[in-house]
Design a protein that fits this description.
Structural class of chain B: alpha/beta
Oligomer: heterodimer
Helix content of chain B: 25-40%
Largest interface: A-B, 19 and 22 residues
Strand order of the largest sheet of chain B: 1-4-8-5-9-10-11-12
Number of helices of chain B: 10
Radius of gyration of chain B: 21 Å
Number of helices of chain A: 8
Largest sheet of chain B: 8 strands, mixed
Largest sheet of chain A: 8 strands, mixed
Helix content of chain A: 25-40%
Mean pLDDT of chain A: 92
Low-confidence stretches of chain A: none
Structural class of chain A: alpha/beta
Order of helices and strands of chain B: EEEEEEEEHEHEHHHHHHEHEH
Number of strands of chain A: 8
Strand content of chain A: 15-25%
Radius of gyration of chain A: 16 Å
Chain lengths: 202, 378
């Protein structure tokens, strides 16, 4: 693994899990793709061609500079650019909590993609619970914003997300819960700070 | 005194002409027995001939894309902010060609050129030319210059339609296509504006059915109105309000029909300026070229099917304040390219300039183009 890939995986441990679930050569759509680091990594590690969706100007330009296909559209207003089933895999990496129309976006992901990979910071982690119990909104490595400046609007826990999937008839194929980059298998909703799911339509 | 040399300018340039003696068959059925194309080049063609970039111009521009003329220093190229040493389209790296379309009044063969059959200017007899015809003529120029394959073709508005058409007419000859502030075809409203402009010209008593050259007059009134209408569609309402608002040109309302508002004065000025340098017959033809552009027409209106031939990688750019070719029109092209699994990036820039934003130096826009060009392998 190249040094920059190592640095990427350290900074964003969910990306390693996502990469491992993306088959070589798969067509990937990355929603809220930032500077395109994941897409670039998937291309180099998996020869998976991809497109990113990003709304912020600076990040879009960073994608262009990273030689990553990027589409500057608002994912909230729907993925109307994309035809049904046109991707093998649609990724929403640590963006779920910032999405306003959560249900609509999840449905759209499984309309345009055969599979959806979703990762989000787990609000059920003990440190978040403790901070709330002590009367404060949680701030941590995975939830780095103060309440007044956070872009996050829809925090959820692992249990909450799985409830929603059930309600939307989304089938969870795989789940990986992490803390500090290590997998958590015991009491994941309490001990895991980051959750990654691979889902399909039921 | 000479102005200090600007290192980001290509400097003094010389317009050139290429003459083609074999006939060109036009989409409308007519044939031109011979034709000339005016062009300029900037930078150097590399040994592998892999660094050529073609710049296509829009409605009223020309092959004079960058730099200035030695004897006319204030005549700076229309896309000089983009093209030059160290600029987004870097002439230290690329060999850039600006070419003037067929039917123009700036040097390429057009309605004011002599008709070889009569020796007199073509006038109304000059055929209607299309975007496809322009690409065909440009391909002859590329052959002449020894360019088998362009690193990129770029254009805004009508120029972008040529950049798109190139990928359809000659898929193997274009590696990257930059399609800026464009539409895959005109809407009824777009055509309506063009028709008003044409009507203004053709109803001018000095038009003489297009044969005004021999009468020694020009339909300047018609051209002025045509340009005034055009200008309204190039600017966004916000940009117009910001620039002019309801500012008065005189101290108080005149209660007559002279110019009250700054916007009236601006439109009159633009119309007047345009009528002194642009040819009415050319204007009629370019508006038709716009109206006729519709690559999906031969595919039952299915743009995805139409763009299946394209092999280039695309950068599509639109501007949020552009209502002439609004972002939704660019998204139609992006969608069709995605359906064809083409390499495409799409930028929707929140710039205030309206349709004309593609000519302006917005830092986001230019940074993106710079990054895109920098990633083109030579």
């Amino acid at each position: 693994m190249k040094n920059e890939e190592k640095a990427l995986i350290t900074a964003r441990p969910d990306l390693a899990a996502i990469a491992q679930w993306v088959a070589p050569g798969a067509r990937v759509l990355d929603l809220g793709c930032g500077d395109g680091a994941l897409l670039r990594y998937l291309w180099e590690a998996r020869q998976a061609p991809g497109y990113g969706v990003e709304i912020e100007d600076e990040r879009v330009i960073a994608c262009v500079a990273n030689d990553v296909n990027v589409l500057q559209v608002d994912l909230e207003s729907g993925l109307s650019l994309f035809s049904d089933g046109s991707f093998d895999c649609v990724v929403l990496s640590q963006t779920l909590q910032a999405v306003h129309r959560t249900e609509a976006v999840l449905r759209e992901m499984l309309r345009v993609g055969r599979e959806a990979i979703v990762s989000f910071p787990n609000f059920g982690h003990w440190s978040a619970r403790l901070q709330v119990a002590l009367g404060r909104m949680p701030v941590s490595k995975s939830l780095p914003y103060e309440w007044y400046e956070t872009p996050n609007v829809h925090h959820c826990t692992i249990t909450d997300f799985e409830d929603l999937c059930r309600r939307l008839a989304i089938r969870i194929r795989e789940r990986l819960v992490l803390h500090e980059g290590r997998p958590i298998t015991v009491m994941p909703n309490l001990l895991g700070s980051l959750a990654v799911y691979r889902c399909t339509a039921a | 005194m000479n102005a200090p040399h600007d290192p980001s300018s290509v400097g003094a340039v010389v317009a050139q002409k290429a003459k083609f003696d074999s006939p060109i068959k036009l989409r409308g059925g007519a044939e031109l027995p011979a034709f000339e194309l005016a062009y300029e080049t900037y930078g150097t063609l590399n040994a592998a001939r892999s660094n050529a970039v073609l710049v296509c111009h829009a409605l009223n521009a020309s092959h004079h894309v960058a730099g200035y003329y030695e004897n006319e220093k204030e005549n700076v190229g229309w896309w000089d902010n983009l093209v030059g040493p160290g600029k987004p389209l870097d002439t230290n790296r690329f060999f850039v060609i600006g070419t003037n379309y067929l039917g123009s009044c700036f040097g390429s063969t057009g309605p004011a050129s002599p008709n070889p059959a009569t020796g007199k200017p073509w006038g109304a007899d000059f055929p209607v030319v299309t975007v496809e015809d322009w690409v065909e003529a440009q391909a002859r120029l590329a052959d002449r210059l020894g360019i088998e394959r362009f690193a990129a073709v770029i254009g805004g508005s009508l120029g972008a339609m040529q950049a798109l058409q190139w990928t359809l007419s000659y898929p193997e000859r274009i590696r990257h296509s930059l399609v800026i502030a464009a539409a895959p075809k005109l809407s009824a409203q777009n055509i309506a504006f063009n028709e008003v402009a044409r009507h203004a010209i053709m109803s001018d008593p000095d038009f003489h059915g297009g044969h005004y050259y021999e009468k020694g007059v020009v339909p300047a009134r018609g051209l002025r109105i045509a340009r005034m209408i055009g200008h309204i569609t190039y600017l966004s309402n916000d940009a117009m309000m910001e620039k002019f608002g309801r500012l008065l040109r005189r101290d108080a309302l005149g209660f007559d029909f002279d110019v009250d508002f700054e916007i009236e004065s601006y439109l009159r000025y633009q119309g007047e300026k345009f009528s002194t340098y642009f040819d009415a017959n050319t204007y009629l033809r370019i508006t038709k070229a716009l109206d006729y552009f519709d690559p999906a027409a031969d595919f039952g209106g299915d743009l995805t099917h139409a763009l299946a031939r394209a092999k280039a990688a695309f950068l599509v750019v639109s501007f949020k304040s552009d209502w002439r070719f609004a972002p939704a029109r660019s998204r139609e092209m992006v969608r069709a390219l995605l359906d064809n699994r083409r390499i495409v990036s799409y930028l929707e820039i929140d710039a205030p300039g309206g349709h004309d934003a593609f000519l302006l130096e917005d830092p986001r826009y230019h940074s993106a183009l710079k990054a895109y060009f920098a990633n083109i392998d030579l």
